[in-house]
Recover the amino acids of this structure.
C-alpha cells in the first residue's frame, strides 16, 4: 500500500481496519545474491539502495532481534554535515542531501526537521577552529554561518550569557542540520526495501560463516545455513564480535554511549545546540522532551547501559550551558554500543576475506550517515568498487597512515 492523503481518507472511512503490515516478516531462503547482517538503519538503507539503485533484489537482511531494537532506536536523532576534513565533508553532505529527499523517496514520514545545528564557541581558539571548519564547508558547497555572541543570543536567549564559567563568544551554525525520528527512519527503509523484494528476517542471529576455497559463501544462523554471493556486515557495536567469527580482527573498540530524555515542556530549544567547553548536546523532540547526551562512558563494554559518573558529567555540562534545566525531571536514559575506530571515522570497504564486506566504525556519527552509508555500501556490494564519496573510508588506512582524524585526538578510540 502506498501512503497518501487518499489512502489515509479511505482507511479512515473504513475504521482503519484495512491497513497492511509495513513489511513482511520473511522466512529465510536457502540462498541470496547478497546477505546483509544487521537490521539497523545502515543495513536496511543498504538493502533499499541495492534494490532501487543497482537492481539487486535477491537480498536478505538478517537481524538477531527485531527491527529498530539496536542503536537505531537508541540515538539522539541529530543529522548534520558540518565536518571539516576532505575525507568526511563530501560523504556527510551527500547524506544531508539524501535526508532532504528521504521522505519522498521512501514514501514514509521520517519526521526530518531541518531546525539547525549550532556549535557554541567559548574561546578565541575555538572560534578560530570553527571559522576554519566553516570555510572548509563552504568551499565544498555546504552551508555554514559563523555567529558572534550577539547572534547566538538572538537565536538562544535562554543560554547562560551573564555569569557562565565558560563565556559564549560565538558559534558555528548549519541551518540545514537538524533532527529526524530515529525509529521512523528504520521503519521507512524496511518498508521501502520490502516493497522491492528484499527479505527482512528477524530473530535470526549469525553464529558463523560458510567458507569455500577461502571465500565466504554464506552464513550459519540460528535459523539454519544461508548461502550468498556476498555478505555485508552492518552490525555497529557488534562489528568486532561478528567479524571475529570469520577470523578477522578489526581496529575497533566497543564503548557505551548514554542518552537521556526529560519530561515534556513547552517549545523552548529552536534546534540542536552543542556545548563547546564540554561534551554536551541537546535538542527538543516534537513531544516536548529535551533529548541530550555527552561523552561515552570511557571503558569497553557490550552492555546497553551506562554508569552514574557519566550521567553526572553530562548533567553538569547541561547545567553549565543552561542552568534552568536543573528544574526539569529526567524521565529515562538508555545506552547504545559505539564501534569506535582509531581515528574516529568509519570503514566502508571490502575485508581481506573474499566475499566479506564491512560497514563499521561509526563512532558518534552513525545515525546522521544512514542514507549515504547505505548508498555507499550498496555501491560497494554491487560493483566491488568504493563509492566516490566514501573512497577514504578504507580499512587499510590504519596501516598506511591515511587517517581521518576529524577531532584531532590521535589513535585513542575512547577520545573520539
Amino acid at each position: 500500500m502506498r501512503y497518501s492523503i487518499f489512502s489515509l481518507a479511505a482507511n479512515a472511512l473504513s475504521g482503519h481496519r484495512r491497513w497492511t503490515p509495513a513489511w513482511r516478516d520473511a522466512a529465510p531462503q536457502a540462498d541470496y545474491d547478497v546477505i546483509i547482517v544487521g537490521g539497523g538503519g545502515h543495513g536496511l538503507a543498504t538493502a533499499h539502495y541495492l534494490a532501487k539503485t543497482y537492481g539487486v533484489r535477491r537480498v536478505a537482511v538478517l537481524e538477531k532481534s527485531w527491527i529498530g531494537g539496536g542503536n537505531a532506536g537508541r540515538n539522539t536523532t541529530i543529522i548534520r554535515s558540518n565536518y571539516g576534513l576532505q575525507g568526511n565533508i563530501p560523504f556527510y553532505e551527500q547524506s544531508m542531501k539524501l535526508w532532504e529527499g528521504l521522505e519522498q523517496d521512501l514514501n514514509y514520514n521520517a519526521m526530518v526537521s531541518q531546525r539547525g545545528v549550532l556549535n557554541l564557541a567559548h574561546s578565541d581558539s575555538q572560534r578560530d577552529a570553527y571559522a576554519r571548519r566553516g570555510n572548509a564547508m563552504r568551499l565544498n558547497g555546504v552551508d555554514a554561518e559563523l555567529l558572534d555572541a550577539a547572534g547566538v543570543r538572538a537565536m538562544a536567549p535562554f543560554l547562560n550569557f551573564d555569569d557562565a564559567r565558560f563565556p559564549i563568544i560565538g558559534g558555528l551554525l548549519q541551518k540545514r542540520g537538524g533532527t529526524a525520528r530515529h525509529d521512523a527512519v528504520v521503519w521507512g527503509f524496511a518498508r521501502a526495501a520490502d516493497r522491492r523484494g528484499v527479505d527482512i528476517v528477524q530473530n535470526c542471529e549469525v553464529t558463523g560463516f560458510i567458507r569455500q576455497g577461502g571465500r565466504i559463501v554464506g552464513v550459519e544462523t540460528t535459523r539454519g545455513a544461508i548461502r550468498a554471493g556476498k555478505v555485508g556486515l552492518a552490525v555497529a557495536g557488534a562489528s568486532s564480535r561478528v567479524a571475529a567469527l570469520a577470523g578477522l580482527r578489526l581496529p575497533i573498540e566497543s564503548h557505551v554511549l548514554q542518552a537521556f530524555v526529560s519530561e515534556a515542556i513547552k517549545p523552548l530549544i529552536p534546534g540542536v545546540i552543542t556545548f563547546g567547553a564540554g561534551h554536551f548536546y541537546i535538542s527538543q523532540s516534537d513531544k516536548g522532551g529535551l533529548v541530550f547526551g555527552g561523552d561515552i562512558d570511557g571503558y569497553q563494554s557490550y552492555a546497553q547501559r551506562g554508569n552514574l559518573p557519566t550521567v553526572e558529567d553530562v548533567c553538569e555540562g547541561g547545567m553549565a550551558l543552561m542552568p534552568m534545566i536543573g528544574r526539569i525531571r529526567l524521565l529515562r536514559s538508555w545506552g547504545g554500543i559505539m564501534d569506535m575506530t582509531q581515528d574516529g571515522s568509519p570503514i566502508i570497504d571490502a575485508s581481506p576475506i573474499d566475499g566479506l564486506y564491512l560497514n563499521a566504525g561509526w563512532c558518534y556519527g552513525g545515525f546522521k550517515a544512514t542514507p549515504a552509508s547505505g548508498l555507499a555500501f550498496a555501491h560497494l556490494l554491487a560493483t566491488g568498487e568504493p563509492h566516490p564519496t566514501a573512497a577514504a573510508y578504507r580499512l587499510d588506512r590504519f596501516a598506511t597512515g591515511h587517517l581521518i582524524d576529524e577531532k584531532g585526538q590521535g589513535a585513542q578510540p575512547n577520545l573520539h
